[in-house]
Amino acid sequence: MKLVVTESYEKSSRLLADMFEEVIAGKKNAVLGLATGSSPEGMYECLVEDYRAGKVDFSQIHTINLDEYCGLSRSHTQSFGYFMDRRLFSKVNIKEENIMLIDGTASAEEQAERYDTFLREHPIDILVLGIGTNGHIGFNEPEAVFHANTHQVELAKETIQANSRFFDKAQDVPASAITMGMAGIAGARKVVLIASGEAKADAIKRLFADDLVDPMLPCSILKVCRDATVVIDRTLYERMKA
Ligand code: F6R
Question: Which of 21, 62, 136, 140 is catalytic?
């Protein structure tokens, strides 16, 4: 697991976009694993900018997102599907049939089966992750064991609190979600985690504190991924060292 420290969130975002574009340049039909939330927003902006400049082509690209809230459809403005449509899918030439999203309104078992079948047949070439303040990745919350496959999860209190900024009030945040499990994440050929902001300092500090892989710190699975990079900016780095 490598640590890269950049000068700013913008520089981190550019670095991630370049990593994605390098994979796409080498494989036109690459499978991209995608996260939502604030962390990858800058990367999506860079990818859209480069698409408009003719530097990257999504016509044969496949994508698979990490997670979705239970109960929210793709047209719900707080759903992760809606986020992806707004930030990336509607702005580039990706084909609708090549987009894998969890349907938060369908049965969790059915969605899990569909996701895990796809992942077995299409290993992810590059996956972007954000990180929760409690160290979650996707919506794999701290628990006594890692869940290998896609599954339904009850969201941790701190996750509901952190994500309430996207909703009118904390009570509107769905209490559960469906998430890709650790097998899907660790099966990716390349994983890049981006973190920025003081709130993430503690989780990143814990991640680099030792060599242990601990389900109570879900991001620690990155230590056994074949090619994992953590990208943080200098402000976060200084904070983590303090
Ligand atoms: C979202 C996801 C989550 C977020 C994490 C950080 O698809 O998988 O793990 O990456 O909650 O969220 P932000 O980036 O909003 O701080």
Answer: 136
Centre of ligand 1 to C-alpha 35, Å, is: 7
In tens, the pLDDT along 134-156 reads: 999 999 999 999 999 999 999 99
The pTM of this model reads 0.97
Among candidate residues 21, 50, 65, 67, the one labeled active-site is 67
Buried-state track 50-64, b at ≥16 Cβ within 10 A, e below 16: bbeeeebebeebbbb
DSSP category for residue 242: -
| Nearest atom, ligand 1, residue 138 CA | 8
Q: What does the pLDDT look like over 96-144, one tens digit per residue?
A: 999 999 999 999 999 999 999 999 999 999 999 999 999 999 999 999 9
Q: Specify whether 96 is catalytic.
A: no
Rg (CA), the chain: 17
Q: What is the pLDDT of residues 175-190, one digit of tens each?
A: 999 999 999 999 999 9
Cβ atoms of 146 and 215 within 8 Å: the answer is: yes
Interatomic CA distance for residues 143 and 82, integer angstroms: 29
Per annotation, catalytic residue among 21, 116, 134, 163: 134
Distance from Cα 2 to the centre of ligand 1, integer Å: 20
